[in-house]
Amino acid sequence: MTSALPERAADTSAENPWPVRLLSMKIGEYVDKMSVVWIEGQVVQLNRRPGSSMAYLTLRDVDVDMSFSVAIRVTALDAMPPLQEGARVVTQVKPAFWPQRGSLSLDARQIRPVGVGELLARIEYLKANLAAEGLFDARRKRPLPFLPRVVGLVCGRGSAAERDVIENARRRWPSVRFAVRAVAVQGSNAVPEVITALQALDETDEVDVIVIARGGGSVEDLLPFSNEALIRAVSAARTPVVSAIGHDIDTPLLDYVADFRASTPTDAAKAIVPDAAAERSAVQTYLHRLRSALRGRLRHERAALNALRARPVLSAPTAYLALQREEVEFLRSRARSAVMRRLERERDRVTHLRATARVLSPTSTIERGYALVTRVDGSVVTDPNQVEVDELLRVRVAAGDFGVRVAGGPTPDPRPAAAAGSGTARPRPTTAKKRSGTTEPSDTAKESHE
């Protein structure tokens, strides 16, 4: 019946299966073909049975929750330095399959503790690779909020770091609120628990800043905070992250990728919230400076106002008006005097012109014995040829006027021709005695008549 069993696992079926022993045998054969391999892990459990030649320990992966049972001879274990739980080791093992139990274990040939120097070298190598990717670039770091609504805190359960952060933060700002996530901060479970807590807080809307805090410890104790998976999780977080791991001399890789590196958990408390007393003092200082500035400005403006009020134009406003009134009165007096003098001069001129006009008027000429002869239509007779015989003329003398009639033709002018041509001859009525003289009065009388 055994010969009828399928040779390969792919040829098995529900009608023609392998028995358990055959699968166990084939797995054992496959495992026996595996070579000796060096692996790295952390010792989480070590059992030594009295009288037994074998010792058993559990070796767990340093990053994830995965472990193997390891068996080692007591003689080999005694030949190496004392091994304690939590130690990080590299082990040369040969995988072994136990068919009776169907379990896989590791037979250890050598166990070597990982030295601090080797751990630091590995951290430096990882640091260089992450820095080359830009995860530590200062331009990627985000500023911390001035006053966060809620502070996310990832720390150990009941740890001193938790008390330091919360107490110092509330001492600075009493109303600050915390969302605390207690996790393992060392050992094989530290990395996954810290990452899970970080992601949960990052997804909470009210959390404005996240603090990852742990107290001091050895290099091995702080190894989880230099883990690559944790570093990448912090780099991917949307919320600003504060690293507060160990003391000043401790610098895990978390310090380089975090948005703010606090030297201690107490220093982290000072970074995430402002000091209420300091802020109140600053406000009081600013208020005092503002009041001083306002008082100084008021003093300056009051002094300027007093200087303006001290000027004569403002201290005695009517004084300027009085000066202007005196000036106006003086100018008015001068104008009045000038007008009066001008009126006197013009009055004298009018009087003189009136006297001149009176002297030159036809009336004045008539009063000196001359007569004005006009025709019926009122035109002045200046030439004997202007009248006709028997024409009625009007003669005006100083005492009145009377009419005359032309009796004969014109009488020749006895004056020389040159003199006769220089003026207009007066009419010589037949009924009046002719007078000698110039013709200028007749011209003046004509002008007066017109």
Describe the structure in brief.
With 450 residues, the protein is of the alpha/beta class.
Give the radius of gyration.
Answer: 69 Å
Structural class: alpha/beta
What percent of the residues sit in helical stretches (DSSP H or I)? 40-55%
Tally of DSSP helical segments: 14
Number of domains: 3
Quantity of strands, as a count: 13
Shape: rod-shaped
| Largest sheet, strands/sense/barrel | 5 strands, mixed, barrel
CATH topology of the largest domain, which one? Rossmann fold
What is the averaged pLDDT score? 82
- Please trace the helix and strand order, writing H or E for each element: HEEEHEEHEHEHEHEHEHHHHHEEEHH
Sheet with most strands: strand arrangement: 1-2-3-5-4
Measure the end-to-end span. Answer: 178 Å
Descriptive overview:
The protein is α/β, with parallel strands linked by helices. The protein folds into 3 domains: 34-114, Nucleic acid-binding proteins (OB fold (Dihydrolipoamide Acetyltransferase, E2P)), CATH 2.40.50; 119-274, Succinyl-CoA synthetase domains (Rossmann fold); 363-449, no CATH class. 42% of the residues lie in helices and 20% in strands. The chain has 14 helices and 13 strands. The strands form 3 sheets. Strands 1-2-3-5-4 form a 5-stranded mixed barrel. The chain has a 5-stranded parallel sheet with strand order 7-6-8-9-10, with helices on both faces. The protein has a 3-stranded antiparallel sheet with strand order 11-12-13. Helix 4 (160-172) packs parallel to helix 8 and helix 5 (190-202) runs parallel beside helix 6. The longest helix is centred in the C-terminal third of the chain and has 44 residues, at 317-360. The radius of gyration is 69 Å and the shape is rod-shaped.
